[in-house]
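Hey, I was hoping to borrow your eyes for a little while. I'm sending you its amino acid sequence along with the backbone structure tokens. Take your time with it, there's no hurry, and the full record follows here.
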Amino acid sequence: MKRQISFGQALATVVGSVIGAGVFFKIGTITAQTGSTSMTLFVWILAGIISIASGLTISEIAASLKINGAIKYLDYTYGRVWGFLFGWAQMIVYFPAQIGALSSIFGVQFVSLFGIKAMYSNLIAILLVLFLLGINLIGTKFSSKMQSVITILKIIPIALIIIWGLFNPAKIPAPIIPLTVGTGHSFPTAISQGLLSALFAFEGWIVVTNLANEVKNPEKDLSRAIILGLSAITLIYVLINYTFMTVLPIDQLTNNNNAAFQASMKLFGQFGGKLVTVGILISVYGAVNAFMLTGMRTPYILAQDNLLPFSNKIGKANIHTGVPVVGAFIVDAIAIVMILLGNFTVLTDMLVFVMWTFNTMLSVAVIILRKREPELKRPFKVPWYPIIPIISVIGGIFIVVSTIINQFVLSIIGIGLTLLGLPTYYYMQKKNN
């Protein structure tokens, strides 16, 4: 594959992958879990800190190892089976579920905006997947440039809401201190459940490591894109959620999936509802494209090591565009099936657990490699070592343990689906030998 993705395009992919529907829809869930404005903002900030710590830590591996993506980082540190399982979970469930869930949200918002019958929302979602598949098949350079444009467009309505909200003369009180929880809420439960919900909105940044072999200057640009992207996203999330809480009282925010729409109506009038709906459509469109751009490379990476059946077909990229065509068809076909099945919330919650299990392993890998290979050239070193990696590891362990305690069945299903990749792995190992 050609090195044709610039720092700006990599940064746009990070921001585009993360900022999707969560920025608009999670405020209702988190306020219900925390019961207070101060704890709501705190869990957003805490989710950002953990994500940035994880990004800083994993960026050291991304800059040091001349290999492509988190799959290879796990291979290198722990052995091939761990990298395969991570890639399997991404290929079979993670990317298809993200593409399917976000496309479905796009379909629902699209029919609502244009007054189309709700029964056509799935059709709109599938058409979006097929349209973006076609765009990505044109070529990586074209789709990544489009991602840069979409990322700028999706920030505009968010920026308008934040600016209008901050200078709104009719703000209602939204105290950020002291740190408290609502009546009937326990402090530990509010933090754990609120953090899990907020972290879903940060999900997706690690997929940019799949583009390591296509970034022009991966030693510097990849880590910079991850760190700057996550820092900007954290600031955006905190500001927009603070804006929502100064426009609508917390009892109107709790469990309200239309909080962004109603807040915008108060800020901008009738036009505000349509504006935020268009903003959601643009935001979700960009997120779907970013997940598709990176997701199609997961089967390609696994097939390059002959770890999948028909690897000779899956592990090929188009000679003219550099696009792994078969990988794109695999991921998008599963996404369309998930759109038709419709159970996206369960899949997405489950994969937050699965992905953070591997993210934690990647953070530990930095510590392992520091001890195992002290002479390894590290163009980027995680600052304040080992404090930042420890924050990342503790945060990851907290997420995994909290999910097992609060959503035991979900976590078992996630582990089970991941381990389903083992028969394929050992079959291919036997065949290769």
User: Anything to note?
Assistant: The chain has a mean pLDDT of 84. The radius of gyration is 21 Å. The first helix runs from residue 7 to 18. The CA atoms of residues 55 and 226 lie 6 Å apart.
